[in-house]
């Protein structure tokens, strides 16, 4: 369990629909740009595995679990996640990680 004042890392595996990849990327990049303005967001990168171009990975770091919880309540995240539902092949896989 993450301590309240420890950094929180996230790895989100995203599988966009092949016929809606441009829309999915545009939505994710918009959400990423907004997220980077939050004081609790340290970094957020959208990456593509070299061996799997049909899957993307969002790598994120927040200052704390509380900062991420606040992030998840932002209107652009709530609304953006609703929009993404139609753009993805399946729900994203979210992994929360603590620094060792």
From TrEMBL:
GO terms for molecular function: monooxygenase activity. It comes from the Bacteria. Residues 8-97 form the ABM domain. InterPro entries: ABM_dom, AI-2_Isomerase_LsrG, Dimeric_a/b-barrel. Keywords: Monooxygenase, Oxidoreductase, Plasmid. This is Antibiotic biosynthesis monooxygenase. It comes from Pseudonocardia alaniniphila. The lineage of its organism: Bacteria, Bacillati, Actinomycetota, Actinomycetes, Pseudonocardiales.
């Amino acid at each position: 369990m993450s301590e309240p004042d420890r950094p929180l890392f996230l790895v989100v595996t995203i599988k966009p629909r092949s016929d809606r990849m441009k829309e999915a990327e545009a939505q994710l990049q918009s959400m990423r740009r907004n997220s980077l303005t939050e004081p609790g967001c340290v970094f957020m990168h959208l990456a593509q595995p070299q061996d799997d171009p049909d899957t993307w990975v969002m790598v994120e770091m927040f200052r704390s679990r509380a900062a991420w919880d606040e992030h998840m309540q932002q209107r652009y995240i709530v609304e953006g996640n609703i929009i993404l539902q139609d753009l993805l092949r399946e729900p994203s896989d979210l992994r929360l990680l603590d620094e060792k």
